[in-house]
Amino acid sequence: MNDRFKFRVWNIEQKKYxxxxxxxxxxxxxxxxxxxxxxxxxxxxxxxxxxxxxxKPLEKYFKVEFCTGxxxxxxxxxxxxxxxxxxxxxxxxxxxxxxxxxxxxFQFNLQNSMQIDKPLYCWAINYLNHYKHxxxxxxxxxxxxxxxxxx
Length: 151
Prior knowledge:
- By secondary structure, the protein is mainly β.
- The chain has 2 domains: 2-63, no CATH class; 67-148, SH3 type barrels (Roll).
- The chain contains 1 helix and 12 strands, in the order βββββββββββαβ.
- The strands form 3 sheets. It has a 5-stranded antiparallel sheet with strand order 11-10-9-8-12.
- A hairpin with a 4-residue loop joins β1 (7-11) and β2 (16-17).
């Protein structure tokens, strides 16, 4: 369940996900849930000499998406903002949903709709134990694949 504490960062201006494996820039979430960007200066990436905290309001530049702690049928971690294909193999029914965080739970949402299903963790428990005919598959995300959910 350690995956539950992972996150990814969308760079709004550059329209791409940040590389969180870099050693010269670190992204940290503080106790208030705010994103901090730490730039490490040094003669090489292996020996940091100084750090600088990015002080601009980061919400204008970056969007943090948290991991649900769950994996899809292909083993990929499911994050907030992912577009998933929810397939009921018993009834041959497929729905496209967006993973959101609302009311203290990850949920499936129909894009451009107020309709929200059960919290994702309820689905996860049932998915793993009782509803083996339900498959989740990540097919994109709301930034790079908007066409999958637009109207």
